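Weekly modeling sync, notes
Attendees: AB, CL, MP (scribe)

Item 1: holo prediction request
CL wants a bound-state model with adenosine-5'-diphosphate before deciding which constructs to order. AB pointed out that an apo prediction alone won't tell us much about the pocket. Agreed to run with the ligand included and paste results into these notes for async review.

Input as submitted:
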Amino acid sequence: MKIILLGAPGAGKGTVAKLLTEMDGSVQISTGDILRAAVKEGSALGREAKGYMDRGDLVPDELIMKIMEVRLQQPDCRKGFILDGFPRTIPQAEALNILLETLNIQLDSVVNLEVPTDVILDRLTTRRTCANPECQEIYNIKSNPPTADGKCKKCGTPVVQRDDETEAAIMNRLDTYNKKTSPLIGFYESRGLLKNFLSLSSKDTVAQIGKTLSR
Ligand code: ADP
Ligand code: ZN
């Protein structure tokens, strides 16, 4: 499948994307994961992105497009890809249209995950992430806790609250989503690509997406 996943921060894009890759071997491309890895590495990209990310602001479009131009041409994308966290703005979506046309790639659909705001807020404040950049497994202190001493079940590294998961940064991310990213829903709807899914359980949502896309 070649799809874009849309949804507010905390809508579960990462979890849904991972489960979808297991269905048909498509790769998950998360710009958030790519940026966090760059920050950990301390590369030029990471140093430029860190300030924006810690405040919960978007990283500039040009930087993101440079990453995606390279990423979408890597051979593992031929089987299919799930874009998770990209595009995030109308200019990114327009640049992506041009890039896909140049690469002769056609999107199957744009999957929009709809989640009520109170559910989103609860999820974001209870979320923890494995600090190992190679792992980054996501936990939830209520519904999917790490080990009793706060370590990742997969790799044993301590799980932490991301810098952008303080309350102020969370409010800023939601505000940025409403202003800059939610217009993409209309953008893709008018192009006949949008499919909406009410998403409360990632597993149910993935099953529904699978059914809809295989039709
Ligand atoms: P979220 O949980 O907010 O969906 P992500 O893991 O997708 O978080 O992204 C984390 C941060 O990385 C964002 O708050 C933003 O600063 C930056 N980022 C990720 N993807 C993009 C993008 N497509 N455009 C601009 N900034 C991005
Ligand atoms: Zn881990």
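Recorded for review: The pocket of adenosine-5'-diphosphate (ligand 1) is lined by residues 9, 31-32, 35, 52-53, 56-59, 64, 85-88, 92, 164, 173 (CB under 6 Å).
Action items: CL to compare against the apo run; MP to circulate these notes.
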